[in-house]
Amino acid sequence: MTELTPSPQRLAYLRRRQRRARVIRAWQIALLVLLLGLWELSTRLGWSDGFLISSPSRMAATVAKLWREGQLWHHVGTSVLETVVGFTAGTALGTLIAVCMWWSDTLSRILDPYLVVLNALPKTALGPIFIVWMGAGMGAIITMTLAISLIVTILNMYQGFRGTDPEKIRLMRTLGASRGQILHLLVFPANYATLLATLKVNVGLSWVGVIMGEFLVSRAGLGYLIVYGSQVFNMDLVMASVLILAVAAVIMYRLVLWVEKYLNHLLGVMQ
Fold first, then answer.
1. Separation CA 192–CA 173 (nearest Å)
2. pLDDT, one tens digit for every residue, the chain (271 residues)
3. Which of 94, 126, 140, 247 could bond to 134 as cystine, CB 3.0-4.6 Å?
4. Which helix (H) or strand (E) holds 12?
5. Within a 10 A sphere around the Cβ of 205, how many other Cβ atoms?
6. Distance in angstroms (rounded) separating the CA atoms of residues 59 and 213
7. Taking a C-beta distance cutoff of 8 angstroms, is the pair 126, 146 a contact?
């Protein structure tokens, strides 16, 4: 096939989009630099107490110290591992349960009131129970993370499955398609966007579960550093850990966006 050459109007539109994206990115970076600069200036000039709110330079020194002592990657790696395992397990298991509920109307009716209760219940309240069941270790933290992302995944995916165009389902049944074929060829592809949206939500929820779990029981991880720093009144460590947590969460979220972009490109090529 001969590749079509973009029209001048299309090229001009793409250049405007690129230019606008660069301007937005420049403003985002400038705003971040301005906020960090004002924060540093306020502590150096005595407008605020650096002991209580730390400062960018003190946070950088704390991160460098953790790096030199070999603790940085240990704590970051622990939290990332717990988050990835809980995120993956919660999304996969939640999607599987949603499929089962779509497949069986009886099962969905049975589970519906329990899902409503579990969704309303603060998952952190279950932390002590998980600790007793799983022991004071990584298992309890991963279980809490899984519990937080699991319910959201089930509800989102099940509602998406139920919202699939009934006329298309009726047409496929008329043509003799089995329930499995309807799921594979229509329902699941139709909720591709719902799954990606659920992944984006679960990134933040998984980090919440990990940090709350590490608050309760942990000897390593970013949540442990935050709790330990607050106990010894080391706000530099607390703020540095929060900063590292924010960076790790953003990186994980960007990875999900990259997966979404790759899959969209792949689907576009296949079509």
1. 21
2. 445 566 777 777 778 888 888 888 899 899 989 988 888 888 888 887 777 888 888 888 888 988 888 888 888 888 889 899 988 888 899 889 988 888 888 888 888 888 888 888 777 777 777 777 777 778 888 888 888 888 888 888 888 888 888 888 888 888 887 878 888 888 888 888 888 888 888 888 888 888 888 888 778 888 889 888 888 888 888 888 899 998 888 898 888 888 888 877 766 655 5
3. 140
4. helix 8-44
5. 22
6. 24
7. no
Residue 49 is given by DSSP the state -
Closest C-alpha to 144, from 200, 221, 259, 73: 221
Q: Where are the alpha helices (DSSP H) in 45-176?
A: 50-53, 56-68, 72-103, 105-120, 127-134, 138-162, 166-174
Instruction: Report the amino acid identity of residue 144.
Output: M
Structure tokens at 21: 């994206």
